[in-house]
Amino acid sequence: MSTASELPTDYDQTSKFSDEESCGQKAKRFFRKNLLLVLLILAMFLGIGMGAGLRYVQPPFNSRQIMYLRFPGDLLMQMLKMLILPLIVSSLISGLAALDTRSSGRIGLRAVVYYMTTTLAAVILGIILVVAIRPGDYGRKDNIERSGEAKNVNPADAMLDLVRVMFPDNLIQACFSRTVTEQIPVNQTDDVNLTSVANMSVFVEQTSDLIQNATNKTAAPQEFEPKLVTVDGINIMGLVVFSIFFGIIIGRMGEKGRPLVELFDSLNIATMKLISLVIWYSPIGVTFLIAAKVVEMEDPEAVIQQIGMYALTVLSGLAIHGLIVLPLLYFVIVRKNPFKYLYGIIQALVTALATSSSSATLPLTMQCLEENNGIDPRIIKFVAPVGATINMDGTALYEAVAAIFIGQINQMSMDVGKVITVSITATAAAIGAAGVPQAGLVTMVIVLSAVGLPTDDVTLILAIDWFLDRFRTMINVLGDGFGCGIVAHLSRGEMAKMDTASEMEKDMSNGHHNDGYETGF
Q1: pLDDT tens, position by position, 59-110
Q2: Does residue 226 sit in helix, strand or coil?
Q3: Do 358 and 352 meet the contact criterion of CB atoms below 8 Å apart?
Q4: Which domains does the chain have, with CATH numbers?
Q5: The whole model's pTM is what?
Q6: Is the bond preceding 327 in cis, omega lying within 30 degrees of 0?
Q7: Nearest to 114, CA basis, from 413, 510, 488, 508
């Protein structure tokens, strides 16, 4: 009896031991799979703690010491930016070359409709929140500290620049610069002829007039004239447009275009392998990027007190859009758990939060979509780079909130017409915003000019923009990720047909359908 009674006990202990062992294996497998995510989260907290501690160092860090502190983070940003050009070109060309013309057209249309819809939804959400909360009533222009200078931008010129950069006149130059319109003052100090020493009285008269105009508050407003100039930075929009058409063309060339297709396929695979190496360095870079940003903040408490309600409005809008609107849209269309899908790209979201650049995060975004969420690589190669270029949900929401916030603190009435203008202009400006840190500030001036708000007041939000920029970049990347999932779901029919046609083509090339040909001879 005793032996019989002991058997179940021994069995239970063995079963319990095996269960504990399996749990340990599950935990080990979980941490191995999510090691990079754990390291990135730890890096963020470590960076915040390190920066907060270094703020109390006496004497305070100077600009050179902050530069040294940020150096490992700058290396990460440079490595990621280095891979943007080969990644976008190779992924777009190889992805579109693998699609037939009809499929690529439908996929592209779905992607554009999704991007326009979510961007407009973000703008409308931002306008509703800023009108309801009215953060501008909590502070007036005299109570908010200014910092920096505003750039003079003409809305019409900015829209023309958006079209102009799509068609670069020099493809090689587009890899490191782009052409934009700048407003040049008509009367500058250069008009003073310093070489004309013979007539000194004319020189003194011109100089005194310039000084008087600069100090006279009632002087006539400064006139500007447009001039095309070349600025540093990758013309991503131009490269995307070229890559799309180039990929479609070589895809339609058949066997003649096969060598080029294989070339860009190999380049894409090699680039992704380089990305895998860089990604494992990212926790180190993220730590020092955040630490340097925390150290160089002048007065965090004052910033929060002055424009805290504005920041709260923007963050609330981003949270609602990222955690409710986008997941709900994904659930309605795909009928799957959106938060499980979101978990698959959380590494890319953390990287976007740290680097504040959707373009720099693009390599990791594409890797997460393919490996964690199982999205078709052909969809990723096309939709993700285009999304990183034109899909800026977070930026559009921020610009709508900021424009109406500046109107509120200036006690300017924002009627329905101006609100509609803000929504349209913010949507268009967000499309043209580069995927680099704080690019939204440049397009912010376009929105302010469109509704007649003072463009100089963009400097009111500079103090906290670096912080908000990280969160809106994260929402931009999240929108790209959900977009890939939705487009892949809607395009599964085209993908299945292409797979069937590819298998039939392979069978024919292997001689499975050559019986009639052989018997004929």
Answers
A1: 888 888 889 998 998 888 888 778 878 887 888 788 777 776 677 778 888 9
A2: strand
A3: yes
A4: 36-186+222-499 (1.10.3860.10)
A5: 0.67
A6: no
A7: 488
